Amino acid sequence: EVQLVESGGGLVQPGGSLRLSCAASGFTFSSYWMFWVRQAPGKGLEWVSRLNSDDDTTYYADSVKGRFTVSQDNAKNTLYLQMNSLKPEDTARYYCAAGRYWIPYSALSSYKYWGQGTQVTVSS
Hints:
The protein is about 0% helix and about 50% strand. The protein is globular, with a radius of gyration of 13 Å. Strand 7 (about 70-75) and strand 8 (about 80-85) form a beta hairpin. It has no helices and 11 strands. Strands 2, 4, 5, 6, 9, 10 and 11 form a 7-stranded mixed beta sheet that branches. It has a 4-stranded antiparallel beta sheet with strand order 1-3-8-7, with no helix packed on it. With about 120 residues, it is mainly beta.
């Protein structure tokens, strides 16, 4: 059974940091592009970062570039998102997803696999 389980979300003050984790099972990490995407209340799905699991190449949306870092631990089949200098506009439910191609999608169901998400709230 394929599973993606996100964790690490929570409430943090502006300027703070969080580290999200996504534990994957049931499929081979290195065969997929791994994505972090987020959805704020009343808004559409927004791509945050993607990682080519085969060669560790990473890409970021302009809104998070320089503040977020995506990484993977292949031995643990786990994807991470280190989020620094958090802003209120980063408040959203964050999902990890796996896709065969580098193209981010506008719907979770378009990815091959996706998790249930973890809530991140940035507020004072």
